């Protein structure tokens, strides 16, 4: 009987040392935030953040192995989910890290928007919807309807008639074309106005 009690106490003691997933997230995110606050935030990027995360993982290696198994670092799916949870926790503990990191990220607002006026020519339906217009000078422009916007219904509901004058606002973007195996410039339409 004594042996059974000692055995149960040993098992209880060894399992009590293992941290839960939520405790690990809290401890690792706290470690990373503390280390990053010691660094110069202007030089922080996703690579440095990842290195700091791996360093913190080594501090809790036995708990992570217990939770995810021996090869936890090479299991992309598990690590991606776990890293996202750590990122959310860090966002609450040290939001300045993410504000500084993503301050310079290019957004749609940074695109150079262009406009062109011409006569609506035709719609081409494929995997994506494209349409062309012809300027008074004879120059033809092709546009890709990629995102939803306020006046997209003029094209999607086929309200525009051939040779109707419209003004198209767009930005140019390189998109990978798998058929030809390279990036191609496309005019991505963001607004259409009847004239």
Short description:
This protein has 195 residues and is an alpha+beta fold.
The dominant shape is: elongated
The poorly predicted ranges are: 12-16
Helix fraction bin: 40-55%
Structural class: alpha+beta
**Given the structure, what is the number of helices?**
7
Q: Bin the strand percentage.
A: 25-35%
Please trace the helix and strand order, writing H or E for each element: HHHHHHEEEHEE
Reported for the largest beta sheet, the result is:
5 strands, antiparallel
Average pLDDT over all residues: 81
Spatial strand arrangement across the major sheet: 3-2-1-4-5
**What is the number of strand segments?**
5
> Gyration radius, to the nearest Å?
28 Å
End-to-end gap: 93 Å
Topology:
Elements: H1 2-16, H2 21-38, H3 46-59, H4 61-68, H5 76-93, H6 95-101, E1 114-125, E2 129-134, E3 140-145, H7 153-156, E4 165-177, E5 182-194
Antiparallel strand pairs: 1-2, 1-4, 2-3, 4-5
What does this structure look like?
A five-stranded antiparallel beta sheet has the order 3-2-1-4-5. The model is unreliable at 12-16 (pLDDT under 50). 13% of the residues are buried. It is 43% helix and 26% strand. It has seven helices and five strands. It is α+β, with helices and mostly antiparallel strands and 195 residues long.
Short descriptors:
alpha+beta, 195 residues
């Amino acid at each position: 009987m004594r042996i059974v009690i000692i055995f149960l106490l040993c098992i209880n003691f060894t399992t009590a040392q293992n941290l839960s997933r939520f405790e690990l997230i809290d401890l690792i995110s706290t470690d990373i935030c503390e280390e990053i606050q010691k660094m110069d935030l202007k030089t922080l990027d996703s690579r440095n953040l990842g290195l700091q995360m791996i360093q913190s993982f080594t501090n809790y290696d036995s708990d992570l192995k217990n939770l995810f198994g021996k090869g936890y670092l090479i299991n992309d799916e598990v690590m991606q989910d776990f890293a996202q949870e750590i990122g959310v926790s860090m966002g609450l503990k040290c939001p300045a890290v993410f504000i500084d990191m993503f301050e310079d990220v290019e957004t749609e607002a940074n695109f150079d928007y262009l406009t062109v006026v011409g006569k609506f020519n035709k719609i081409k339906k494929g995997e994506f919807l494209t349409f062309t217009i012809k300027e008074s000078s004879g120059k033809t422009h092709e546009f890709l309807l990629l995102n939803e916007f306020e006046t997209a219904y003029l094209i999607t509901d086929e309200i525009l008639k051939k040779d109707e004058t419209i003004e198209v606002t767009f930005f140019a973007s390189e998109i990978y074309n798998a058929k030809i195996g390279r990036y191609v410039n496309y005019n991505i339409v963001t607004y259409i106005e009847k004239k």
